[in-house]
Amino acid sequence: MASLRLSQGLRHLLTLRSASAVPAPPAHVLDQAFTSTRNTAKTPGLVNAWLAVTVSTLLTVNSPDSIGYLYKFATQDGSSKPKDLPERVAAAALMREAGVKCGVFVGVPKTINGLAGLYQALEDDVKAALPKDNPRNQASAVTNQENGLNLFKSVYDPHTEKLLAKLQSYHPDFAGWIVEHEYGALLSNVPGHNHLSRTLTSAVAVASLRASGGVGPQLVSHVYGLLKARGFDLESETDDDRWLASEQGAEWVIALADAITDAVVGPPLDKAKL
User: Fold this and answer.
1) Which residues pair with 82 in a beta bridge?
2) CA dist., res. 57 & res. 67, Å (int)
3) CA neighbor of 188 nearest in space, from 252, 240, 135, 250
4) With CB atoms 3.0 to 4.6 Å apart as the test, which of 8, 105, 106, 245 could cross-link to 230 if both were Cys?
């Protein structure tokens, strides 16, 4: 097949209407935003939540270079030296898991950009040490359906059946696809592989939807989902999970997403006019 070449006019057209990702603000702006928001996380578990919420917000606003900077910020000690390998691997694994789950809420293109920005910032030893297996591919369709429906119900009950019927009315494939492929194959965890806690998954959802803007009903639903995360997995649930799944925790997630969004893209117009 002969190679295709785009005309100059078409190439120019593709550069218009914000074709590029959002550039990272100056380093001192990110340092200030990351430092001030991380200081609100009072326990190591909440620092992990801070990292998951922050990377989700940056992915949503489509600033992959900021994600790379976040990784460097999160994996340096007080003297700006890299932390030990296990700590860097843990941070990278948490960030990429939060990032891939954002695909449900913000779409695949931004998720590709964000994960690429993270990957480019990783050191070679971290890339080599990150897990390569994919337990999700080992799960059967039946398992994905069961896990997906279980997670979906934990977010939307007592309105699950009504919501599924509404989604089904929009398109006959829609409800089943959301339950099996989004909630089952991506958002839920494969048994024995706790990629991200139920609570952190809801925190990622809230952050992504808050940073997206214009999706108020979905944001409200996932705030309720965060509040209902308490008790979903009692064996692995921590005190930090229980705090996040409270109104105070939900307010913290929203305020964190707002602060990071404002630092990278500026405040919304209605706020800027005040």
Assistant:
1) 76
2) 9
3) 135
4) 245
In contact, 73 and 30? CB cutoff 8 Å:
yes
Q: Are 96 and 134 in contact (CB under 8 A)?
A: no
Q: How far apart are CA 63 and CA 265, in angstroms?
A: 9
CA distance 151 to 199: 11
| Residues 211/61, Cβ–Cβ less than 8 Å | yes
Q: How many residues does the chain have?
A: 274
For helices 247-265 and 44-60, angle between their N-to-C axes, nearest 10 degrees: 50
Partners of 76 in beta bridges: 82
Joined tokens for residue 37: 């928001």
Q: How would DSSP label each residue in 182-241?
A: IIIIIISPPTT--SS-HHHHHHHHHHHHHHH-S-HHHHHHHHHHHHTTTTTTTTT--HHH
Q: Could you state, in order of their start, the residue ranges of all structural domains in the chain?
A: 24-137+240-268
pTM of the model: 0.92
Q: Assess whether the previous peptide bond of 158 is cis (omega < 30° from 0).
A: yes
pLDDT by 10s per residue, the chain, length 274: 678 899 999 999 998 888 889 999 999 999 999 999 999 999 999 999 999 999 999 999 999 999 999 999 999 987 778 999 999 999 999 999 999 999 999 999 999 999 999 999 999 999 999 988 876 666 576 788 898 999 999 999 999 999 999 999 999 999 999 999 999 989 998 766 657 899 999 999 999 999 999 999 999 999 999 999 998 887 788 999 999 999 999 999 999 999 999 999 988 765 544 4
